[in-house]
């Protein structure tokens, strides 16, 4: 994989673990399992970091040698390790806007068109990632069209943009367009109002009725400010936000002396988030956090 200044290349997440975009991840994975995912995808988002995180996670899932039952990347096989090390021979990433203001035709020919005609080294196809595809010069866009119109078997183009309306109609019409809204970030004040320490603190401690009841009381109070048609729906929205904030809090501890424990807690919190996504009752989710056995 060739890359240039792309964020989090060495920490590519699995699709299912990316907060706020569970429905899109589930759709992509369903299409991937059914071998119906389009050969060219265009992600339109005002947030470059969000779109590149999504496409890199999708690239990882596409090339994984031992995918999960869901179709998502395992994160452990040789392909996933190569992706996270930034050296995957079958994933080519063009420089982003921090490196190049425009993408010249020679780069498209050398880094996309020519390699697309070659066999994948690991026999799982080839993925080409083009950040901010609106930077293509006209000649470069025309060169890319050759691959989009007649894609070699196993070739997938993953492109991001902040302005899909500015692209050539021929590019837009030959790619499956997904619009991804920018998710509001949680401010320091918001996180301070979330019982992050309490939420992470009950993980693996065993059933603690007092702690769980306290969190449920806070959840019911906070849920009044969350969108939703029913009290249960509002609680799930609020709990999902809490879990996201707790995960971010634990990620900040990965560089410290308690990194192993933080990593184990993150895994539990992400599983809890998946439980919320399939409508498991918030109290059962909190009890699951407490009853989980940690290994680190």
Structural write-up:
The protein has 296 residues and is of the alpha/beta class. It has two domains: 9-179, 3-Layer(aba) Sandwich (Rossmann fold); 188-291, no CATH class. The chain is built from twelve helices and five strands. It has a five-stranded parallel sheet, with helices on both faces. The longest helix has 21 residues, at 231-251. It starts with 21 loop residues before the first helix and ends in a 5-residue tail after the last helix.
What does this entry show, briefly?
It contains 12 helices and 5 strands. It is an alpha/beta fold and 296 residues long.
Find the structural class using helix and strand composition: alpha/beta
Q: Which regions are unreliable across 5 or more consecutive residues at pLDDT < 50?
A: 2-10, 185-189
Anisotropy-based shape: elongated
Separation, N- and C-terminal Cα atoms: 31 Å
What name is given to the CATH topology of the largest domain? Rossmann fold
- CATH homologous superfamily title of the largest domain: P-loop containing nucleotide triphosphate hydrolases
Taking all residues together, what is the mean pLDDT? 84
Helix percent reads 40-55%
Total helices: the number is 12
User: Strands across the major sheet, in which order?
Assistant: 2-3-4-1-5
- Please state the CA-atom Rg, rounded to the nearest Å: 21 Å
Number of strands: 5
Q: Specify the biggest β-sheet.
A: 5 strands, parallel
What is the helix/strand order?
HEHHEHEHEHEHHHHHH
How many independent structural domains? 2
The CATH class of the largest domain: Alpha Beta
For this structure, the quaternary state is single chain
Strand content: 5-15%
The CATH architecture of the largest domain? 3-Layer(aba) Sandwich
């Amino acid at each position: 994989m060739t890359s240039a200044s792309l964020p989090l290349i060495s920490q590519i997440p699995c699709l299912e673990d990316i907060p706020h975009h569970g429905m899109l991840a589930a759709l992509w994975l369903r299409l991937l399992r059914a071998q119906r995912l389009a050969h060219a995808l265009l992600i339109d988002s005002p947030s470059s970091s969000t779109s590149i995180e999504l496409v890199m996670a999708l690239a990882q899932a596409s090339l994984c040698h031992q995918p999960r039952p869901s179709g998502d990347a395992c994160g452990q096989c040789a392909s996933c390790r190569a992706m996270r090390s930034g050296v995957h021979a079958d994933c080519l990433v063009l420089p982003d806007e921090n490196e190049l203001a425009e993408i010249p035709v020679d780069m498209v020919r050398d880094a996309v068109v020519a390699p697309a005609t070659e066999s994948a080294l690991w026999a799982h196809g080839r993925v080409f990632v083009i950040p901010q595809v609106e930077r293509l010069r006209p000649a470069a866009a025309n060169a890319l069209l050759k691959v989009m119109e007649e894609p070699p078997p196993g070739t997938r183009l993953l492109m991001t943009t902040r302005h899909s309306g500015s692209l050539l109609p021929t590019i837009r019409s030959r790619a499956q367009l997904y619009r991804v809204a920018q998710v509001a970030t949680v401010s320091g004040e918001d996180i301070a109002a979330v019982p992050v320490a309490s939420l992470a603190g009950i993980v693996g401690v065993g059933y603690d009725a007092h702690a769980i009841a306290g969190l449920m009381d806070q959840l019911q109070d906070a849920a009044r400010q969350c969108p939703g048609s029913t009290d249960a729906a509002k609680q799930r929205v609020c709990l999902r936000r809490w879990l996201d904030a707790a995960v971010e809090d634990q990620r900040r501890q990965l560089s410290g002396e308690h990194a192993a424990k933080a990593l184990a807690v993150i895994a539990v919190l992400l599983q809890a988030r998946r439980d919320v996504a399939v409508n498991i009752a918030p109290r059962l989710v909190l009890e699951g956090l407490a009853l989980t056995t940690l290994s680190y």
